[in-house]
Amino acid sequence: MVLYDGLTQIFGGFVAYGISFYEGHALAPYKILYLLFGALAIVVGVCVILWLPDSPVHARVLTREERIAALERVRDDQGGTENKHLKKEQVIEALIDVRTWLIALTVITTSIPNGGLSNFSNIVIKSFGYTSRQTLILSTPGGAVASFVTLLCGWYSDKKRERMMPIIICFVPTIIGAAMLIGLNGSGHKGALLFAIYLVGTFNTVLPTIYAYNASNISGHTKKNTVNAITLTAFGAGNVIGAEIFQPKDAPAYVPAKIAMMVLISIQVFITLFVRAINMRLNAKKKAALEVEKSKRGWTDEDVQKERDRHAFLDLTDKQYGFVSRLSCVRFLISRRNPYFVYMP
Question: Which phi-psi region, left, alpha or beta, contains residue 277 (left: φ > 0; alpha: ψ -120 to 50)?
């Protein structure tokens, strides 16, 4: 999502720069932007409805074998399958899971700076000493930085099977950039200040990484939807609050808002480290429990994989009963915490 936000920032900046040369009186330049991007959004929406499948099962562009392969990925990651029924127990589990609220806190503290910069970044750049027209074109590299960092973090996250560490890595340049904006305020070093605003934009990769975290660390369709709903609510609330930290009395430098951004991002480093520590601890407990069961039942790794495969499509959460196994005509309850679901820290 942020990848396309970055590309949109590049495209939008160039389009706005071009429209700034419009000298007609039929429409105000900002109305032209609204009409153009609104029309493009409608066209894209129609294309999505017509051609984007809602499930691998309904993907007409895939062969039968490719659809099966896509479903097998669900079996492998133990993420559960779509279920149209709302499960009360999964909603409750989502609400009492401390990580749900830590993720919400991460999102809201990220969205506050995002909401402010989305609305005021051009004003901040202009305060460095550039003209309004120069500001439009100088905002485009920030989109390139955001897109590149998003791709890089996505690659690192999947390669290392990490979710929180890429977020922490991206916070470092953001904190450095915010500190530069505060320290160099009024210095007249336009190039350094512009570089700082581009550095601050690296935090935008947090949201897609959080979406990836939810997808890979939360099992159970209802639970996943509940956590995603809380995540999006936090995103909206943070953006609303973010617009309010840039007060007119602080214009054009908005130093208090920059300080607030740096403080919030710094707090997030500790939140994400805490989430990572929780997941690593849960993984260690699951691994130990699984080894005990393997020893008790005399199972091999192949037996464990068969059980994983058998319960992969039961729409269980990551904390519900692992599976119910038929052994010697007796049903054994293996674990209250799903021992086959491994969290990505």
Answer: alpha
Phi and psi at residue 132, to the nearest 5° = -60, -40
Q: Which of 152, 140, 264, 260 is nearest to 209 (CA)?
A: 152
Taken as a whole, the chain contains a residue count of 345
Q: How distant, in Å, are the alpha carbons of 43, 46, 48, 58, 61 from that of 52?
A: 13, 10, 5, 9, 10
Q: How far apart are CA 234 and CA 164, in angstroms?
A: 18
State how far the alpha carbon of 269 is from the alpha carbons of 79, 102, 188, 318, in Å: 27, 12, 31, 25
| Cβ-contact 163, 212 below 8 angstroms | yes
Distances (CA, A) of 22 to 35, 214, 236, 292: 15, 45, 34, 73
Smallest CA-to-CA distance from 268 within 207, 187, 335, 186 is with: 207
Say which residue the tokens 């916070």 belong to: 171
pLDDT one-digit tens code per residue, 20-34: 998 888 888 889 999
Q: Is the pTM of this model over 0.90?
A: no
Please report the beta strands in the chain, taking only residues with DSSP state E, as ranges in sequence order: 324-327, 330-333
Instruction: Please calculate the CA angle 292-336-286 and round it to the nearest 5 degrees.
Output: 45
Task: Report pLDDT digits (tens) over 233-291.
Answer: 999 999 999 989 999 999 888 999 999 999 999 999 999 999 999 999 988 887 888 78
d(CA 10, CA 310): 47
The DSSP secondary structure of 214-225, one letter per residue, reads HHHH--SHHHHH
- Separation CA 201–CA 164 (nearest Å): 18
Shortest CA distance to 158 belongs to which of 234, 87, 213?
213
